[in-house]
Amino acid sequence: MHLVDGRPPDRRDAAAPRTQRTPRSPSRVAMLSMHTSPLEQPGTGDAGGMNVYIIELSRQLAALGTEVEVFTRAVSSKLPPTAEIAPGVTVRHIPAGPFEDIGRAELPAWLCAFTANVLRTEAGQDAGWFDLVHSHYWLSGQVGLSAARRWGVPLVHTSHTLAKVKNASLADGDRPEPELRLHGEQEVISGASRLIASTETERRHLVDLYGAPPDTVDVVAPGVDLDVFRPAGDGDERAARARLGFDPDTQLLLFVGRIQPLKAPDVLLAAAAELIRRDPERRSQLAVVVVGGPSGSGLERPDALVKLAAELGITDIVHFQPPVPHDQLASWYRAATAVVVPSHSESFGLVAVEAQACGTPVVAASVGGLRTAVDHGTSGVLIRGWEPADYATALERILTEERWRRHLAAGARARAAGFGWTATARGVLRSYQAAIAPSAVAV
Ligand code: UDP
């Protein structure tokens, strides 16, 4: 295997032996997702894009011949030890800490227990059970450092979010990421064999802010299930609105995601109020729908948006919808006149791509991965900053100029067509191959 002095290969070790000429894909990957299970409903608490990412990536990897076992913390004693969620994809529930949901801040205390039980699980299998570890988020990265070293295999790590980036763009009411995470994240980024970034911007952050060697960072865009997220068969958004119980002539502005200051759903509410201020007659036609549940620091003030809607005098047009099962979200995107993603920080922004795949234009903050997901002026509009009036102006044009909306809707479909999970899995496999044979494969 690729052991150097009993350790996994150091990606800075220029003398690493050239052992492999033909790219080899791993046959079985340990996918680590300690803090959130891929089986959880995304859009609330700690479950979001990462959960969707892990399921879709794992399914596609299995379809391409690489089996996946996902290790996640058992949040209930009633969970089965293993659950097969697709052919070749098994979720393993690992006991570590209380059998209940606990906040992310409490999880570092259970890292040792989780790591020990992951190692114990592997020890019960044939030797060489996994030939690669892929960790997600820094907590799992910490587990990955130990597991990869113990098993003598490479560690590939995906950060999903970066503390330094988050701390540089905090919203009002958000707490900075703690020193422990900054330190732990740095250790993982420095110790992994390879890193996967969703965009060139994230790659630059990994290199410039965390000192990752540029040639060890692979950019692989996440995807969207283009069979599920597609425009309505009849192409009729009016019918889509009627199916959800809205007047077909309603102009529907949609927010989808975990409700917390970082995601800035307040900007959409304030923009809607501004639209009504500019044209009071619009009120009877306008609906704002917020799909998702509280998360992060949003958990401390779960009724903050309800209060804001009342303060803005728009309670009558704002609808709060609890998290919707992932494959049913397409109905909401199709019914929307525009989807608004005003996040303060977003490493990619799956919601933006899913909405576009359904033929719905996106108005988004010009930050992070949203700059990749949305093609400004073609599939949506990117806005610098969080001034509600700017969002209102962009939305006003979409609401009032049908030709502009149709232009963006066509561009949105075209933009999303470039993001599929199979392409993501192929990109990730190339990264795995490079990690297994660092000197033989160029990604
Ligand atoms: N999501 C969902 N149901 C909901 C709300 C969100 O399935 O009610 C999914 C959504 O489809 C998307 C993910 O949660 O795939 C959110 O990912 P995104 O990258 O937009 O944000 P993140 O949660 O990673 O910050």
TrEMBL record:
Listed Basic and acidic residues bias regions: 1-15
Gene Ontology MF, one: D-inositol-3-phosphate glycosyltransferase activity
Region ranges (Disordered): 1-31
Biased composition regions of type Low complexity, renumbered to the chain: 16-28
GO biological process: mycothiol biosynthetic process
Domain Glycosyltransferase subfamily 4-like N-terminal: from-to ranges: 48-223
Binding locations of 1D-myo-inositol 3-phosphate: 35, 46-51, 104, 137, 161, 181
Keyword Cell division assigned: no
Enzyme Commission number(s) from the entry: 2.4.1.250
Keyword annotations: Glycosyltransferase, Magnesium, Metal-binding, Transferase
Gene3D superfamilies linked: Glycogen Phosphorylase B
Oligomer status and interactors: Homodimer.
Summary of the function given for this chain in its UniProt record: Catalyzes the transfer of a N-acetyl-glucosamine moiety to 1D-myo-inositol 3-phosphate to produce 1D-myo-inositol 2-acetamido-2-deoxy-glucopyranoside 3-phosphate in the mycothiol biosynthesis pathway.
Protein name: D-inositol-3-phosphate glycosyltransferase
Organism: Parafrankia irregularis
Taxonomic lineage of the native organism: Bacteria, Bacillati, Actinomycetota, Actinomycetes, Frankiales
Gene: mshA
